[in-house]
Amino acid sequence: MQDRDYLTLRRVSFWVFSLAFLILTPVILFYSLGYKFDTQAHKLQKTGALTIKSSPKDVEVRMDGVRVSKSTPCTQRNLLPKTYHVVLQRENFYSYQVKVDVRSAEVSEIDAALIPYVRHVDQLLPVKGVFKFFIVPQMFGKKIYAFARDGLYEVGENLETPQRIAALSLDDATLKNLSGFIEGNTQLAFWDPKHVWLVQVTPKASPDGLAPVSVLVDYTAIPDESLVGVFWGLKEKYAIVRSTLRIFALDVNHPQIKFPLFTLQSPDAKVIYDSDSETLYIDDHLPGANDFSLFRIALQDLINENDAHQKNP
Amino acid sequence: MKTTPIKRILEIIPGLISWSLILGGLTLSVLDPLRAAIAVIVYLLFWVCRLFYMSVLLVLAHHKMLSHRQTDWLKLCDEINSDKNVPDIVHAVLYAIYNEPPEVIRESLRSIKNAHYPHDQILVTLAGEARRAGTKEILAEIQKEFAPFFKEILVTLHPDKVSGESPCKGANATFAAKQIAAYLTQQRIPFSNVLLSCFDADTCPDKNYFSCLTYHFLANPKRHRMSFQPLPIYSNNIYSVPAFARIIEVGSTFWQLMESMRHEKFVTFSSHSMSFQTLVDVDYWPVDMVSDDSLIFWKCFLKFNGDYVTQSLEVPVYMDIAVGRNILHTVAVQYKQKRRWAWGVETFVFVGEPFLTREGIPFSIKARKLFQILDSHINWATWSIILSFMTPFLLMWGKAFEGDALVFFNLTYINSVIFNSLAFILILCMVISKEFIPPRPPQVSRWIYVSFMSQWLFLPLVSAFLGSFPALDAQTRLMFRKDLPFFPTPKQRDSEGKLSA
Questions:
Q1: To which H or E segment does residue B357 belong?
Q2: What are the pLDDT tens digits along chain B (501 aa)?
Q3: A39-77 pLDDT, tens per residue?
Q4: If 0-12 CB within 10 Å is exposed, 13-18 middle and 19+ buried, where does residue A243 land?
Q5: In a mutagenesis test of the B interface, which of A4, A29, A76 is the best target, namely the one with the most B β-carbons within 10 Å?
Q6: What is the Cα–Cα distance from B393 to B386, expressed in whole angstroms?
Q7: Is B330 helix (H, G, I), strand (E, B) or coil?
Q8: What is d(CA A179, CA B472) in angstroms, rounded to the nearest whole number?
Q9: Burial class of residue B18, CB neighbours in 10 A (0-12, 13-18, 19+)
C-alpha cells in the first residue's frame, strides 16, 4: 500500500466514525431518556422500564400473554406506559400473576417469591401417635417437642434422632387438648385448660433415664376457670400461671406454695411475663373502664423496693 | 524571565479547562444528575467513536510498519533519483547522558555498531554533564572502547550553572551540538549533508534506522523542512518490569503509532532526527525548557512560517521502560516521567504567544494547531478521570437520589454496552502489542506471557493514575507557575550488563 492509500483509508474512517457519532448520539440520547416511536399512536412516547426479580431465579416471564424472557432476573426496556399483566412461571411452582403499572421515564420493579407445589413429604418422624408438637427456638436452630401416646419426645428440626424424654400417662383426648408448652433450663412445663404438668429434665431420677412428670396445677374441680398460659418466673423457681381471671405464682418444687399476683377484669385480657426482667405485662380493662389498657407489674422492682424498705425502715 | 500577560493567560488556559471539566462535571452530577447523565452519554459516545477511529489508525500504522520490515533501505537509497548520495551523508548521533549506568550507554552504542549502514559515516557524540562526578572518566573509557567502530566519538561535558539555562536535556544537547558544529566545520563537512539524531542514553536504534532515515532524507526535496520521528518501542527491559509500567509504555508506543498516521498533527517526541543545517538555522534546542523534543519541532515550525512537518520513519528505536528500585518506587518514577512528558503542555504557551503576536502563518493553520495542542493535552488530563471515576460516581449518585429516573437505568446499560464494545479494542491492543515483545530470555519463565495478556485489565486504573493525574499535575503547575523539578529517568543494569528488575 502507498502512503496515499493509507491517507484515503484514514479519511474514510474519520468520516465514517464522525457520521456514526452524529447519528448514534441523538438516537441513544432519545433511547436513554425513554423515548420510543409508538407505531400505533404514530407519535414519540416516553417509555418506562420494568425490572423483574424472582426467587427462585430462572423463571419464565410473560407480559400480556407474550413471553418476554426465559429467565429472571431480567429487564424490560422501552415499555409504553400502561398496566401490564405479568405472569412468572416455572415448573413445580405456582404461577405468579400480578398487574404492574409502567410509568414514563421511571423504572418499575417486581420482586416475586414463587411458592412450590408440595408433592411429597420430606421426612417422617418415626414415632406413631403424635398428637401435639411444639417448636422451641434454640441458640442454633430449633428443637421440637412431640407429645405422643407413649411419651414426650425431643427431636431435631430435621425430625431426626427422636429422643423419648418422659413417659406420659395421658389419654388421647388430653393429649389433643394440650394448649401450651414452655422449656426451661432444667424443666419443661405443658398444660391444657385444666392442668399444668412439670417435667424435670435434669437431674434424671428414674432408672429408665426418663424424666419424671408431675402435675403442678389441677383445675378439674374448678369449672369456671381455665388455664390460659404459664411462664417461668424468678429464675424458674416459680411458674407464673394465668387462668381465666387470675394470675398466680406457684413454687415448682412445692406446688402447694402458691401466691396470688393479680386478678384480671376481663377473660379476654392478654398477659405476658418477661422472665428476664421479671415483669408482668397485662392488657386488661381498668376497673370501671370499658377500654383495654396496657400496664405492667415489675416483680423484681417490688422485691428490691421491699428489700430496701426493710433495710431502711 | 519576565512574563507577558498573553503568556500568563496561555499558561492558565489548559489547566483551567481541565479543572473546569472535572469540577464542573462533578458539580453538575450533584446538582442536576439528569443533565449530567445526558452530558456523560454524549461524552461516552464521543470517546467510543474516537477510540474506534484511533484503533483503525493503529491497525493502519501497524500494517505500514510490518510491510516495511523487510525493506532494503540502503538499496532504495541507491535507486532513488536525488541530488545527494549515501556517501555524502554523515549521521551525527547525539546521546544526552546524565547519570545513566555505563552499561546502558554501551548497549546503545552496540546497537549502532550493528546498524546496516557504513560506520565510517556515523559520528557519535556522548554529551555528558560536568556536574555529575566521574562522567568524564566514564565517557572517556567508552569513547576508547568504541572509537574504532565509528567515524569519530566526541565527548562533551556541559558546564554547570550556565546563565540563562535550566537543568534540562535541551541545554546539554545544545552545548554538544555546538561542539559537533565546530567539528564539522573543521572537517569541512557541509551541515546540509548531516543528519542529527538526538537520542536518550538508552536508545537503541533498529539496525535499519540510519538507512531508512537516509532514504527519507534523500527522497524528499524539502529535507530541511522536516524532522524524522521513529517509533519508540519500550522493550529493552520489558521482561523485568512490573505489568503496570509495561502497559503505560506500550500505550505510549501505540499513541505514537496512531499519531504517525496523522501527519498534520505529528510532532517530534523523545528520540528523533533532523537536518543539522535546520538545527543550526533555528539556533538549536531551547536551553531553559523541559520539553525540548517537541519544542524543537515548534521552533522550526515558527521559524519557517508553518512550512515544517514531521516525517514518520518505518523503523523503531528501542528504549527502556522507566523502573525504580521496587514497585512503589517504580510507580513514583513512572508518575514523574509521565508528568514530565505532560509538561509538553508548555508548547501551548511556546507556540501560542508567537501565533497571537506575529504574522506569517495563515490564521486557519494557527487556530488548528493551537486547538490540536489544547485538545490533546486536555483529553490526556481528563478522559480517563471522567470515564473511570466520574461516570461511576454519577451512576451511584443518580440511583441514590433519582432512583426511578429511567435515564440512569439506561446509562448503566449503555455504559456496560460501551465497555463491552471497548473489549474489542483491548483485544486488538493485546494482539498488536505482541509485535513489540522481544524474544524471551531463557531465565524468564513462560508464565510471563500470561502477565503480558492480563496486564491490559489494569488499563482503566493505570490510565487514570499514571496517565491523567500526572497530566493534570503538570497543567496545574503551569497554571500556578510552579516549575517542574528536574527528574532524570533512572535506567538500570546489573554489573554483568544484564537488565535488572
A1: helix B346-357
A2: 568 899 999 999 999 999 999 999 999 999 998 889 889 989 989 988 999 999 999 999 999 988 998 999 999 999 988 889 899 999 999 999 988 999 999 999 999 999 999 999 999 999 999 988 899 999 999 999 999 999 999 999 999 888 988 888 999 999 999 999 999 999 999 999 999 999 999 999 999 999 999 999 999 999 999 999 999 999 888 898 888 888 888 888 999 999 999 988 899 999 999 999 999 999 999 998 888 899 999 999 999 999 999 999 999 999 999 888 888 999 999 999 999 999 999 999 999 999 988 888 999 999 999 999 999 999 999 998 998 888 889 888 887 877 667 888 888 888 888 888 888 888 888 888 888 888 888 888 888 888 888 888 888 788 888 999 999 999 999 999 998 877 777 766 554 444 443
A3: 887 888 888 999 999 999 989 999 999 999 999 999 998
A4: buried
A5: A29
A6: 10
A7: helix
A8: 76
A9: buried
- Is some CB atom of chain B closer than 8 A to the CB atom of A15? no
The ipTM is: 0.86
pLDDT number for residue B158: 95
Return the residue matching grid coordinates 434454640: A138
| CB–CB contact A20 B49 (8 Å) | yes
Cα angle at B396 between B392 and B397, to 5 degrees? Answer: 115
Window 75-114 of A, Cβ < 8 Å to B: 75, 77, 105-107
pLDDT of residue B500: 41
Q: How far apart are CA B384 and CA B419, in angstroms?
A: 13
Spatial separation of the C-alpha atoms in residues B265 and B375, rounded to whole Å: 11
Q: What secondary structure does DSSP assign to A8-52, as a single string? A: HHHHHHHHHHHHHHHHHHHHHHHHHHTEEEETTTTEEEE-EEEEE
With an 8 Å Cβ cutoff, are A24 and B409 in contact? no
- Residue B410: its chain A contacts at CB < 8 A? 31-34, 49, 77
Inter-residue contact A273 to A231 (CB < 8 Å): yes
Mean pLDDT of chain A: 90
> Cβ of A105 and B405 within 8 Å?
yes
CB–CB of A28 and B404 under 8 A?
A: no
CB A10 to CB B56 under 8 A?
Answer: yes
Question: Contact, B268 vs B227, CB < 8 A?
Answer: yes
Contact B38 A32 (CB under 8 A): yes
- Give B19-71 as a DSSP string: HHHHHHHHHHHHH-HHHHHHHHHHHHHHHHHHHHHHHHHHHHHHHHHHHTTT-
Q: Is A295 on the interface with B (CB under 8 A)?
A: no
Cell of residue B293, nine digits: 523534543
Start-to-end C-alpha separation, chain B:
42
* Residues listed for chain B: 501
Closest chain A residue by Cα to residue B66: A1
Amino acid in the structure at residue A280: L
Task: Report strand pairing: B309-319 vs B226-234.
Answer: parallel
User: pTM of the predicted model, to two decimals?
Assistant: 0.77
Please state, in angstroms and rounded to a whole number, the distance separating the CA atoms of residues B205 and B190: 24
Nearest residue on chain B to A109, alpha-carbon basis? B404
Please tell me which residue of chain A has the smallest CA distance to B63: A1
Residue with cell 537543568: B167
Chain B positions touching chain A (beta carbons under 8 Å): 37-38, 41-42, 45-46, 49-50, 52-53, 56-57, 60, 63-64, 67, 261-262, 403-407, 409-411, 413-414
**What is the C-alpha separation between B144 and B150, in angstroms, rounded?**
11
Contact A106 B405 (CB under 8 A): yes
Q: Do A17 and B50 touch (CB under 8 A)?
A: yes
* Residue B159 to chain A, least CA–CA distance (Å): 45
- Between vectors from CA B317 to CA B103 and to CA B270, what angle results, nearest 5°? 90
Residue contact A14–B53, C-beta within 8 A: yes
